[in-house]
Amino acid sequence: MNKEILKRYLNNNCSDEEFEEFVVWFKKEPCDKDGRIRNWVFEHWKLFEPELKKKDEKKYSILLDKIHHGINLNRNEKGNSKTIILSAVAKWLSRAAAILFIPLLGVVFYLLSYNNPYFKQSSALAVDSLEVIAPIGSRTVVQLSDGTEVNLNYGSRIKYPRNFAGNTREIVLSGEGYFDVAHNPNKPFIVKTGKLNIKAIGTEFNVHAYPDDDVVATTLVEGKVMIESTSPGQKIGKGNTMIPGQHVIYNVHSGEITSDFGRVDKYISWKDGKLVFDNDPITEIAEKLGRMFNVEIELDDNVRDFSYTVTFFNDPLYLILDLMTETTPIKYNILPRQKQPDGTYSKQKIRIEKRE
After folding, report:
1. What is the Cα–Cα distance from 219 to 248, expressed in whole angstroms?
2. How distant, in Å, are the alpha carbons of 185, 312, 313, 351 from that of 319?
3. Considering only CA atoms, which of 88, 98, 91 is closest in space to residue 19?
4. Tens digits of residue pLDDT in 35-45
5. Please, are residues 10 and 102 in contact by the beta-carbon 8 Å criterion?
6. Which H/E stretch holds residue 191?
7. DSSP element (H, E) containing 172
8. Pairing state of beta strands 189-192 and 196-200?
9. pLDDT per residue over 70-117, tens digit each?
10. CB 268: neighbour CB atoms within 10 A?
């Protein structure tokens, strides 16, 4: 391989024979040990200092993402081999405008360096990952590529790959989700919450893991799940395995774990538009209503001992508050929203206090 062929390639002027020679060379030596090839390409990089317009910067970023995606796809297909087949990427590059791809080719060479830490980090990323967010005040249903169905509660989000690769099906949850997992005994389904991993094969379960809460809670409806702490050496119950009807609560601060076999519908009915409270304190109710309706509920100390057993079904906030005032001696005040320096208004505040 000589410089003249590379120059003609970069200017999109090489013949078919020269192109094939370039591809063969690229396959055999993506990067030499002494860095000669990389230094050679980066000489072109230093000479290329265009002032890109915004639209060109956007194109540049998109094209680089495509190249990197192609690299990772080939790594997935070939395992951990250090020989990466890039003929498809190289062909694609050859059909593009040379002035834009001189720096891009430099980046490709640099990323292919065996000892490059940036390549090692980025090769582990799921470049094809997706994120779905259920906005405040609404619930969302997500269908994953394996047939698993996920119901997301208010303000929750999941990150997951477009297609599951490897020996597991892993997603990341922030908030609350109800999972109806497609059965696949050869590829466990794992929900990652930061402090806990919930592992299933084919089952239905609920996970409550809002980042601003003190607890992560899991409720098993049917099937079998294993709960694994991300803290080294910590066990979650006997064998870490839950049984249907079990509700496990993990305190993220103290590490304390509690378990009961209460009403399953209390923990999963939210997906059907219900709020079920069974002798629950007003503090917990205020927290759920605040998240559901995007309001901030302040409680006076003299009402914190009240508890409620009630079920609400798609009821508006103020109807719920009115019903609470009828069953307990409380009252609520809607505080005016404050205008912020940027012209927006603060979150609606509602104050609940004892009625005389």
Report:
1. 6
2. 46, 10, 11, 15
3. 91
4. 555 555 555 44
5. yes
6. strand 189-192
7. strand 169-180
8. antiparallel
9. 444 444 444 443 333 334 444 444 444 444 444 444 444 444 444 444
10. 19
pTM: 0.61
The SS3 call for residue 143 is: strand
C-beta separation of 242 from 204 below 8 A: no
Q: What angle do CA 220, 235, 200 make, to 5 degrees?
A: 35
155: left (phi over 0), alpha (psi -120 to 50) or beta: left
Q: What average pLDDT score do residues 217-238 get?
A: 78
Please give the domain boundaries of the chain with CATH numbers for all domains: 3-122 (no CATH), 129-266 (2.60.120.1440), 273-354 (3.55.50.30)
CA-to-CA distance for 134 and 257, rounded, in angstroms? 28
Compute how many other C-beta atoms are within 10 angstroms of the C-beta atom of residue 118: 11
d(CA 183, CA 203): 7
3-state secondary structure of 274: strand
Write out 175-189 in H/E/C secondary structure: EEEEEECCCCCCCCE
Dihedral in degrees, nearest 10, Cα atoms 100, 103, 105, 106: 180
Give residue 39's identity as a one-letter amino acid code: N
DSSP 282: H
The Cα–Cα gap between 3 and 161 comes to 40
Q: Which runs of consecutive H residues, i.e. helices, occur in the chain? A: 3-10, 16-28, 36-47, 54-78, 87-94, 98-111, 117-122, 264-268, 282-293, 317-327
Give helix 3-10 / helix 16-28 axis angle, nearest 10°: 110
Nearest Cα neighbor of 288 from 300, 278, 299, 297 is 297
Q: Which two tokens stand for residue 159?
A: 């990150």
Q: Which two tokens stand for residue 260?
A: 């009961």
The number of CA neighbours under 13 Å toward the Cβ of 140 is 18
